[in-house]
Amino acid sequence: MHINGTIAFVSGANRGLGRALVEALLQRGAAKVYAAARRVETLDDLRDPRTVPVRLDITDADQVTRAAEAARDTTLLVNNGGSLALADALSGDLGAFESDMRTNFLGTLAMSRAFASVLEDNGGGGIVNVLSLVVFGSVPPMGGYSASKAAAASITQALRAQLAGKQITVHGVFPGAVDTDMIRDFPITKTAAPNVAAAILDGIEAGHSDIFPDPMAQAGYQAWRADHAAFEQQMAST
Ligand SMILES: NC(=O)c1ccc[n+]([C@@H]2O[C@H](COP(=O)([O-])OP(=O)(O)OC[C@H]3O[C@@H](n4cnc5c(N)ncnc54)[C@H](OP(=O)(O)O)[C@@H]3O)[C@@H](O)[C@H]2O)c1
Fold first, then answer.
1. Is the N end or the C end of the chain the one with fewer CB atoms within 10 Å?
2. Pocket of ligand 1, beta carbon within 6 A
3. Alpha carbons 59 and 14: distance in angstroms, whole number
4. CA–CA separation, 176 vs 133, rounded Å?
């Protein structure tokens, strides 16, 4: 799939990786980018005339339906919007588990469902689900987040199989640590969001189903392939 000329829709486009993806899409010649955010005023600084601001909370069924109706020319859906609550398996607030599951799993699923027919009507296209390296090994202090991303990874596979006959490619993205607000306070090595965004677009253009867009992601996936149990322990100790 070529980015040049594509019409993309990006959730969580107001900051972090989502904003970097909008900018990278424009740089590579996207014809139009629907930039979606919960608070539409946070998109006011987007100046490129190819951007179209959209109000969207992916956990709001009516807003999801309206977004798909308003963006019927979309050929590339990027499910980037996501939340991270620090909630561990033994003592974490179940409300935090529910919230991450509602956003990262059900929100991603709702958006993919709503846009599948849009993409099909346009002759095919792509769905990109931003997941996480924690899919391959849970990080216990964020056990709820890890589970929500694992659920989203599973549904990504199901969508891929069900949409394959409709000329729609489905890509899972498994970043390691990205330098955004989400992990601002974590003292670990992070990759700059523009670099991660560029690598994601490279992966889409190369037709990769699974995309590992930064050095931590690539090393982590290699370690998981070499020894699943050792990788699980490594992630558990981070
Ligand atoms: N940063 C990392 O190290 C890392 C690693 C792996 C994967 N990821 C994933 O990358 C994606 C982008 O995260 P980020 O690092 O850019 O974090 P971020 O800076 O915290 O941005 C998160 C974005 O998601 C939006 N969002 C949250 N809940 C939403 C909802 N219910 N509906 C619509 N949008 C919602 C936020 O909107 P508001 O501004 O309204 O809150 C914000 O735009 C997420 O899916 C995250 O899980 C991040």
1. C
2. 11-12, 14-18, 37-39, 56-59, 80-84, 103, 107, 130, 132, 175, 177-178, 180-183
3. 17
4. 5
Block mean pLDDT (10 aa), the chain, length 238: 97 98 98 98 97 98 98 98 97 98 98 98 98 98 98 98 97 98 95 98 98 98 98 96
Rg (C-alpha) for the chain, rounded Å, is 17
**Angle at the Cα of 177 (from 171 to 181), degrees rounded to 5?**
100
Strand partners, 168: 125
| Separation CA 201–CA 197 (nearest Å) | 6
- CA 199 from chain center: how many Å? 13
**Through-space distance between the first and last CA atoms of the chain, rounded to whole angstroms:** 36
Looking at the CA of residue 149, tell me the nearest atom of ligand 1.
47
The protein residue whose alpha carbon is closest to atom 17 in ligand 1 is 182
pLDDT at 223: 98
Which ligand 1 atom is nearest residue 13's CA? 43
Looking at residue 238, its pLDDT comes to 84
Ligand 1 centroid distance, CA of 227 (Å): 30
Find residue 8's DSSP bridge partners.
Answer: 33, 76
Q: Whose CA is nearest to atom 26 of ligand 1?
A: 81
Give how far Cα 171 sits from Cα of 11, 35, 208, 233, Å: 15, 19, 7, 27
> How many helices, marked H, and strands, marked E, lie in the chain?
8, 9
Residues 6+ apart with CB under 8 A from 222: none
Report which residue type is found at 26. Answer: L
Residue to substitute in 9, 102, 180 for testing ligand 1 pocket (most ligand atoms within 8 angstroms of CB): 180
